[in-house]
Amino acid sequence: MAFRLKLVPDETHINFFQWQWLTFGVSAFAMVASVVITLVMGLNFGIDFKGGTTIRTETTTAFEVGDYREALNNLNLGDVSITEVFDPSFGATKHVAMVRIGTTEETGSVTPEQLNQVEAALKTVDPNVSFASVESVGPKVSGELIQTAVYAVVAASLAIMFYIWLRFEWQFAIGAVVSILHDVLLTVGLFSLFQLKFDLTTIAALLTTLGFSVNDTVVVFDRLRENLIKYKTMPLIDVMNLTCNETLSRTIMTAVTTGIALTAMLIFGGDVVREFVIAMLWGVLVGCYSTIYVAKNIVLWLGVKRDWSKPDPKEKQDEIPAAFRDAP
Amino acid sequence: MLQIPAWKRVLILGLIALGLLYAVPNLFYNRVEQHNDAIANMERSGVETPEDLAAKAGWPNWMPSGLVNLGLDLRGGAHLLGEVHVADVYKARMDSLWPELRDALVAQRETIGAVRRVTAPDGQLIIEIGNADQIAKAVEIARGMATPVTSISGAGSTDLDIKGSGNRLTVQLSDAEKAATDDRTVQQSLEIIRRRIDEVGTREPTIMRQGADRILIQVPGIGSAEELKQLIGTTAKLTFNPVVSRGTDANARPAAGQVVLPSLDEQGIYYTLEQNPVVTGEDLTDARPSFDQNGQPSVDFRFGPAGAKRFGAYTSANIGQPFAIVLDNQVISAPVIRQAITTGSGQISGSMDVEGSTRLAVLLRAGALPAEMTFLEERTIGPELGQDSIDAGRLSSIIATGAVVAYMIASYGLFGVFASVAVILNVILILSIMSMMGATLTLPGIAGIVLTVGTAVDANVIIYERIREELRRGKRVAKAIDDGFNEAMSAIIDANVTSFIAAMVMFFLGSGPVKGFAVTLTIGLVTSVFTAIFLTRLLIVFWLDLRKPKQLVL
């Protein structure tokens, strides 16, 4: 018999609802905690959302952030932050810093003259320094970008909810949207907790994981619908457990392959996309959890119509579970 | 399901082969790019230089030469989001309406009394008349000057909005005309910016309108956003105005119809000029950089017939008088007319270097922007950073694919190999479709491809898990595989549609890199469904036909 790597045994009989109050409690707590953390600590908005200027500097020799700061202090630029960027791919001769200059009251963002001054000041500290990228976004656009980002997340959630309602039942749609909300809140919470840079690409990551999480949920729902037709009188909770056990292998498998791919990107993809990949990786983990522990539970509590084959009420008395019936 | 007709097999394999063929140019990116550039170059200039011919020969003509367009974050370049000040045009319209309206009103002086223009907010023309009781008459005269708006939404309305109250007559553009004007202004700006950038001859710039009054400009390969801004940010409004006087007072009060403008070279010198120009930059037919008699960089220009005639008439009538060459509200120079200039050509010289004269010539040739622009977003990405990102992206894609392949083979054995073939072909297909569409690959897009590597196996996993279940129920191999594919189909469709919805939302609401990511993701969804459902099945069918296995360990 050939070797097969199986993270999940062929037959599982895990009762996913055994601890449902605990898992629900954890989810609810995590959601509330995310909201509280975000409100208290705020998000580390990138210039896309906050306006301002970022300059990425690259140099061949090690430098002191303090020296940079001192050089820029005299320029009277207002809110300046300088962080050194570390990445395993840089090697010994590459040292990168991000200089961020906030928007000023009068002009909005940094003027070209100020930019030249900044570059000149940094050149005096380190003549080898080069400016790999310079980006600035005015406060007018950044406000609009936030608005668009929020619209995007809401629009995607509604569109997905509508599609699921169309294909399944409204209870499923509610379940899926609650799990979307769960994933989005937890991701935002993570970004706030670790003060990771939150910008436009983070929103893209958020939307992708949102799609991924629903994708996962839908596969389970699809099987649930099939089993609801098969086992008409089995208690809903048992049908759900059966479904979840049947699809568990696939859920884990897909989470692992996606996780592997994203981890490779996280390690070797460079620092420019790091936040983006973190958001996706976290989204995949949370999405996997919410598929198993959030979406289904909501459907269970809402209850769902049991007869998917025909409107005839007599059908309900059919015996289970041997009767195998094809999907209509 | 397992009986795949021969034509379908050929079609599937043919599509794959086509995909491979179109992905090939990306392996030789530089060579193909030079080949394409050379062809474009020869088409534009009509000259076949040996270098261009050599570059063209670097890639066979019969091969596809479409490439994945690299986004700014990968190639390096500049990105600008500009806002056109559409309201500037309202003011210009009012200023040009005034003389005409004044003449019409003055003709009726006996009834409406003296006519006087008073200061008004930009975009409004406020006129005081002597006899307040005759305001209705003044309104009637002004209304006579309005013309119908020629736009779909503005049908039935006129271009002027005229109100009279007391002794004041207020004229401004009507809302319908404003909307029509805004649209024209932005279109014109777009066209002029495109001409200016094309003049510089850079590769594949993106210049497009965004929203009502914004223009997005992305130029790969340009040094910095600042450079790009100098090229497109200047309005380059050139006029030749009669000079009234020259002085040092910036706050000199000009008479009606006159303006005070600073000199470009001479510090502290201000000229009072007639506001209506003799000729403008619009009359120019050509402008090119050159050198004046002192060897200083200058710009030679030439008027069209109408401009030449007007300029000739003016100069012959005003010999000995100074006239001013004004660029963007600064007096470049104010020479005295020595003789009538009837040839229709002239020269602008002043303090500029060779680069400056080249740029001015480009700006004058391309024409003036109808309104000023301010920049809301500026981004410069250096080429090294782009190359680093490409390298990192390539490395992580290879590692991700390798790891996923290893895991799939460990989990599903031979069927894992089938899925792996599908995954690798999937990545190639994504690249080839992007090449065919000329779609833009951004750094998040590369992350999207890596993500697709992870999720593309999902459809296969759903199918294989289903086959495993069917096998456990004791079905025969072929039957189990057939049922596995059939039963898994609805889950695969639903799962991909939801991802597709998210990708669409990103495409329509996102901008720049996010849009690029959405495109990559969408293409990846389509190709992964194709490879998972059609290609894997075909591979499995080939294997079944070949081996006719009694048993299957999955």
TrEMBL record, chain A:
Provide GO CC annotations from the record. Answer: plasma membrane
Where primarily located? membrane
Residue limits of the Protein export membrane protein SecD/SecF C-terminal domain? 118-303
Q: Where is this region: Disordered?
A: 309-328
Work out whether the entry's keyword set contains Transport.
yes
Keyword annotations for this protein, in alphabetical order, are:
Cell membrane, Membrane, Protein transport, Translocation, Transmembrane, Transmembrane helix, Transport
Protein location: Cell membrane
Where is there biased composition of kind Basic and acidic residues? Answer: 309-319
Q: What does this protein do?
A: Part of the Sec protein translocase complex. Interacts with the SecYEG preprotein conducting channel. SecDF uses the proton motive force (PMF) to complete protein translocation after the ATP-dependent function of SecA.
The UniProt subunit note reads as follows: Forms a complex with SecD. Part of the essential Sec protein translocation apparatus which comprises SecA, SecYEG and auxiliary proteins SecDF-YajC and YidC.
Designated name of the protein: Protein-export membrane protein SecF
Organism of origin is Paracoccus litorisediminis
From TrEMBL, chain B:
What SUPFAM superfamilies does the record tag this protein with?
A: Multidrug efflux transporter AcrB transmembrane domain (SSF82866)
- Database matches in Gene3D superfamilies: 3.30.1360.200, 3.30.70.3400, Multidrug efflux transporter AcrB transmembrane domain (1.20.1640.10)
- The answer to keyword Signal applying to this record is no
> Domain Protein export membrane protein SecD/SecF C-terminal spans what residues?
373-543
Q: Where is the SecDF P1 head subdomain domain?
A: 261-371
Cellular component (GO) terms are: plasma membrane
Give the record's membrane topology.
Multi-pass membrane protein
Transmembrane stretches, by residue range? 417-439, 445-467, 488-510, 516-544
Chain ranges of the Protein translocase subunit SecDF P1 domain = 186-243
The record's section on InterPro entries has: SecD, SecD/SecF_arch_bac, SecD_1st, SecD_SecF_C, SecD_SecF_C_bact, SecDF_P1_head
What one GO molecular function would you report for this record?
A: protein-transporting ATPase activity
Q: Which UniProt keywords apply?
A: Cell membrane, Membrane, Protein transport, Translocation, Transmembrane, Transmembrane helix, Transport
> What is any one GO biological process for this UniProt entry?
protein transport by the Sec complex
Keyword flag GTP-binding:
no
Cellular location(s): Cell membrane
Q: How does it assemble?
A: Forms a complex with SecF. Part of the essential Sec protein translocation apparatus which comprises SecA, SecYEG and auxiliary proteins SecDF-YajC and YidC.
Q: Which family does it belong to?
A: Belongs to the SecD/SecF family. SecD subfamily.
This molecule's function is given as: Part of the Sec protein translocase complex. Interacts with the SecYEG preprotein conducting channel. SecDF uses the proton motive force (PMF) to complete protein translocation after the ATP-dependent function of SecA.
What is the protein's name according to its record?
A: Protein translocase subunit SecD
Q: Per the UniProt entry, what species is this protein from, by scientific name?
A: Paracoccus litorisediminis
Q: Provide the organism lineage as a comma list.
A: Bacteria, Pseudomonadati, Pseudomonadota, Alphaproteobacteria, Rhodobacterales
